[in-house]
């Protein structure tokens, strides 16, 4: 019986009524005489279904890429199959969803690497690199350590670069990739002077001295806005290397069991990245569902976002590549003081700013409502989050019918206690990157925020327990040899569960647990965030996210039981098989 096409993931759920009613229950009538031929039967498994009504099962049957039975082993008597698998109590979980990733950005950058343990050594390395590469117009370098050059409101200065490279264009990326250090020649080439306005003061901005002159320290969108023009991928070898890198990191995601990803943007390289993703799908090299976006990192891009994301949909969209959302950077990060907090940074009196005002974001939400699009928001500070919540509340009040946009707020490093319950009340989705939750001795952010605020960061458990929809993500695009580890959802599960990094990463004998200790997430919560809730974020809840009859058969087989392994070894888990639409695409069944 073949009533469902695995290539039609948005098939109306009403069509499920075409199946015999017994097949849509978790338990079939053991006395039925009907015999139904299916593609695959799995028995003797530990199946975490992510279905709150029936969270565990021991057997599943699959036909035409859909689950047709989920329940006890005795119910399998109804089915006949040529492929029957005994999993010997291995764990099955639904296919995983990464709700905030950047796989398309891997190796877009073409950095020259420099290093040094002191400012003098690092700058000497810059000088050596410049001498060895006289052919490069732009010296695109990486990476300067934040703690080495940032002290409160003071940061790196162009004069230090001018001293070692006075006659070349230097663009030096920070280790956070959220701020940049330029020399005088580079600022001149970009036309940045004392008269140049900041795209958004306090967020996307050029740091300035007391005379108003740019110091060369460039933050967030003020720098990102130049990427696609100054550093376009024109070299054929670079373009091919980038495409192969994207193909490989997508395979890494797939091998970990990720079957759907939300790409949270590519710093102005969206046109190039999404053409690559579309090419990979045509070539049969796209192993998951890919949801793209359009980033707003300067206020002016809010005016073009909807038209651009709709154009992406027309030009690059397909069954597996979709564009249903735009992304806004409401603030930056704490380390360069571009994150927006309700109270000033320690030692500062400056009021934090958000990229868009409440009124501007409300207007954008109303436009998204009219166009049936969703919104993803980068929000680190409590002021940024409050502004988003206030805008959602205002937009909902202005709509007489059902409010369309699903608003996902990513990161939520600090949420004011008064706003914790509002996330659920307003129907906002909270997206956390749980592998960030580990203890970090000597973190510069603690110095900038003070111990009290720092000790209340990343309260994912409180948000989850409030009843809000919480999703999880990797949010990583660089990391060299460590990139496959950083993007692993099992690293996220371990650190989200323990609030400690893997012990091999510790900087002391005992780095401790990141406070608040009671914000440790349960493994069941983490799995729900990576599955059922992730599917909801992407509007796939009718067809994905759970192992229940009628839904697409995406699932992961783990050779070790996630709930029984040492919590400090979860990050090393690797699936033995990954099934996508009923077909094994990674590993193998026993």
Automatic annotation (TrEMBL):
A molecular function GO annotation: hydrolase activity, acting on carbon-nitrogen (but not peptide) bonds
Keywords from the UniProt entry: Signal
One Pfam entry name: Amidohydro_3
Domain of life: Bacteria
Signal peptide extent: 1-25
PANTHER family: IMIDAZOLONEPROPIONASE, PROTEIN LONG AFTER FAR-RED 3
Name of the protein: Amidohydrolase
All residue ranges annotated as the Amidohydrolase domain in the record: 85-585
Organism: Parahalioglobus pacificus
């Amino acid at each position: 019986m073949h009533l469902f096409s695995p290539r039609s993931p948005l098939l109306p759920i009403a069509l499920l009524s075409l199946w015999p009613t017994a097949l849509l229950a978790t338990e079939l009538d053991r006395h039925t005489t009907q015999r139904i031929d299916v593609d695959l039967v799995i028995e003797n498994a530990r199946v975490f279904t992510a279905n709150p009504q029936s969270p565990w099962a021991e057997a599943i049957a699959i036909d035409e890429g859909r689950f047709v039975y989920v329940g006890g082993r005795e119910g399998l008597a109804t089915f006949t199959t040529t492929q029957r698998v005994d999993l010997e109590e291995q764990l099955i979980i639904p296919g995983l969803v990464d709700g905030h990733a950047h796989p398309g950005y891997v190796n877009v950058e073409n950095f020259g690497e420099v290093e040094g343990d002191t400012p003098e050594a690092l700058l000497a390395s810059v000088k050596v690199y410049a001498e060895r590469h006289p052919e490069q117009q732009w010296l695109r370098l990486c990476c300067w350590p934040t703690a080495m050059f940032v002290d409160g409101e003071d940061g790196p200065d162009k004069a230090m670069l001018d001293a070692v490279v006075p006659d070349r264009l230097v663009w030096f990326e920070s280790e956070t990739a959220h701020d940049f250090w330029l020399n005088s020649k580079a600022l001149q080439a970009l036309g940045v002077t004392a008269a140049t306005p900041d795209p958004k003061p306090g967020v996307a901005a050029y740091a300035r001295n007391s005379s108003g002159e740019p110091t060369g320290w460039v933050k967030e969108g003020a720098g990102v806005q130049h990427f696609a023009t100054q550093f376009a991928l024109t070299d054929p070898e670079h373009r091919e290397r980038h495409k192969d890198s994207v193909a490989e990191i997508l395979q890494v995601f797939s091998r970990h069991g990720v079957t759907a990803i939300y790409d949270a943007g590519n710093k102005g390289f969206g046109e190039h990245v999404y053409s690559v993703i579309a090419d990979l799908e045509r070539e049969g090299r796209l192993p998951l569902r890919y949801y793209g976006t359009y980033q707003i990192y300067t206020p002016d891009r809010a005016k073009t976002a909807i038209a651009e994301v709709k154009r992406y949909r027309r030009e690059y969209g397909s069954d597996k590549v979709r564009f249903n959302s735009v992304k806004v950077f409401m603030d930056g990060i704490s380390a360069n003081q571009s994150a927006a907090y309700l109270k000033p940074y320690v030692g500062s009196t400056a009021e934090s700013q958000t990229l868009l005002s409440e009124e501007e974001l409300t207007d954008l939400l109303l436009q998204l409502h009219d166009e049936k699009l969703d919104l993803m928001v980068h929000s680190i500070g409590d002021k940024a989050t409050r502004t988003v919540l206030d805008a959602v509340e205002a937009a909902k009040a202005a709509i007489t019918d059902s409010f369309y946009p699903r608003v996902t707020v990513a990161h939520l490093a600090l949420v004011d206690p008064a706003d914790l319950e509002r996330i659920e009340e307003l129907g906002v989705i909270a997206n956390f990157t749980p592998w960030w939750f580990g203890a970090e001795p000597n973190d510069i952010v603690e110095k900038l925020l003070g111990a009290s605020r720092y000790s209340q960061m990343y309260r994912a458990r409180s948000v989850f327990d409030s009843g809000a929809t919480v999703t999880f993500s990797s949010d990583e695009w660089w990391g060299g040899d460590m990139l496959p580890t950083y993007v692993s959802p099992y690293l996220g599960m371990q650190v989200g569960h323990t609030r400690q990094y893997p012990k091999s990463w510790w900087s002391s004998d005992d780095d401790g647990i990141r406070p608040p200790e009671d914000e440790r997430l349960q493994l069941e919560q983490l799995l729900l965030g990576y599955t059922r809730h992730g599917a909801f974020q992407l509007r796939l809840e009718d067809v994905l996210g759970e192992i229940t009859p009628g839904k697409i058969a995406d699932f992961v087989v783990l050779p070790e039981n996630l709930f029984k392994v040492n919590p400090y070894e979860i990050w090393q888990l690797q699936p033995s098989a990954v099934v996508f639409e009923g077909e094994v695409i990674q590993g193998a069944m026993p």
